[in-house]
Amino acid sequence: MSPTASPSATRVLVLNSGSSSLKYQLLDMGDGTRLAAGLVERIGEESSRVVHTPLGPDAGEKRERTAEVADHDAALKAVAEELSKDGVGLDSPELAAVGHRVVHGGLRFSEPTVVTDEVLAEIERLVPVAPLHNPANITGIRTATALRPDLPQVAVFDTAFHTTMPEYAARYAIDTETADAHRVRRYGFHGTSHAYVSARTAKLLNRDPSEVNVIVLHLGNGASASAVAGGRCVDTSMGLTPLEGLVMGTRSGDVDPAVVFHLSRNAGMSNDDVDALLNKKSGLVGLCGDNDMREIRRRIDAGDERARLAFDVYVHRLKKYIGAYYAVLGRVDAVVFTAGVGENAAEVRAAAVAGLEELGLAVDAGLNAVRSGEARLISPEYARVAVAVVPTDEELEIARQTYALVRGDRGADAGE
Ligand code: ADP
């Protein structure tokens, strides 16, 4: 029998396990408060870093320390210790469930899912298509299960929101048998963010999500665009892996696949070399040596040509996806920017929609310049299409989906 949540328990621990990091948040879904957030970095290295921020009503100071954290098990124990110091330990009966971010759910998982041995085996079967992420996610689930075997562990998949893509958007035009045998198709990622932000945008517009068509631009270190029609994803820019699509911090996004054969035949590069080139030494870093948009802006202001070109390549790709998804949707109600670059870089937002007035798109310079952590419109009154900034909140969305599942009321509103 799978574990069930106790009826009075309202807290959800959200875990995002990377290969050498563990990020966490503790949320109380009863009153909607966030109790703590933090991360353990450089797990397995000589000196790991533990950063814990208490967030409850009588929250104390942020605590930061270095420690030797050998593995994810030790990392979660360090998290449990920090939470205990704040009186919100993981042994509390108020903890209802643990919600895990799982990057790849393939075609099988279109909804958050309580983890069983069979579910874990399926997540493991997807490792060949998510070699960097799924193994770390599995470790996180195993570690949390060992600590609280009585609690439901819920997997919330980055790919889930995109499983509604029509087959013609998800298929690559390659030999069908080869594609199917090796699960080669477009899955999309950042789905939790696209789901949250598109629903939140409908709220911002005072419209029902089923009525609005939205283009979401999630621009963090990783970046992806999605076309969302009436709350359902109909296309997204990432594909088999998070490499496809927009220009990112260190990833190339779209390139001619022949670049790979060309480099392997003519530059003596191995598959792993090209993999590292496209994932780690490309994008903004490859173009100008920096992946932080703040630094790139600073360099542009100082007259740096390489930084200028990197910015222009980034924005040009963004504009192409806005146009493509406009065509896919037919009618667009809002274009919305989110994540580190989308929420903060006013110049990127302005440049991405510049010249698209014929499509009904415009940005009000004054509104765009305002710095705020709130969801907001930045388009002028007269614009036919709203342009918005909506801060993403993947942890809240994972906690909501997890809580709704263990409470048995899935289908609860995703927006705020
Ligand atoms: P991740 O994909 O790692 O979650 P984030 O969504 O946190 O990334 O975005 C990180 C990126 O956001 C940084 O690399 C930087 O380029 C950008 N960024 C953060 N703050 C600002 C800012 N004030 N102005 C411009 N860019 C910013």
From TrEMBL:
Transcription found in the keyword field: no
- Per the UniProt record, the site (Transition state stabilizer) maps to 190, 251
Entry keywords, A to Z: ATP-binding, Cytoplasm, Kinase, Magnesium, Metal-binding, Nucleotide-binding, Transferase
Name the pathway: Metabolic intermediate biosynthesis; acetyl-CoA biosynthesis; acetyl-CoA from acetate: step 1/2
Q: Which reaction does it catalyse?
A: acetate + ATP = acetyl phosphate + ADP
Q: Please tell me where ATP binds in this chain.
A: 23, 218-222, 292-294, 340-344
The keyword Transferase appears for this protein: yes
Identify which cofactors the protein needs according to its UniProt entry. Mg(2+); Mn(2+)
Q: Name one Pfam family in it.
A: Acetate_kinase
A Gene Ontology molecular-function term?
A: magnesium ion binding
**Known SUPFAM superfamilies for this protein?**
Actin-like ATPase domain
According to the record, the signal peptide region is none
Q: Where in the cell is it found?
A: Cytoplasm
Q: Copy out the cofactor comment.
A: Mg(2+). Can also accept Mn(2+).
Q: Which GO terms describe its cellular component?
A: cytoplasm
Q: Which GO terms describe its biological process?
A: acetate metabolic process; acetyl-CoA biosynthetic process
What does the record give as the active site?
158
Matching Gene3D superfamilies, A to Z? 3.30.420.40
EC number(s) per entry: 2.7.2.1
Q: Quick one: which residues bind substrate?
A: 101
Instruction: Summarize the subunit comment.
Output: Homodimer.
Which function does this protein serve?
A: Catalyzes the formation of acetyl phosphate from acetate and ATP. Can also catalyze the reverse reaction.
Q: Which family does it belong to?
A: Belongs to the acetokinase family.
- In Swiss-Prot or TrEMBL terms, this protein is called Acetate kinase
**Annotated organism of origin:** Streptomyces solincola
Q: Which lineage ranks, top first, belong to the organism behind this chain? A: Bacteria, Bacillati, Actinomycetota, Actinomycetes, Kitasatosporales
Q: Which gene encodes it?
A: ackA
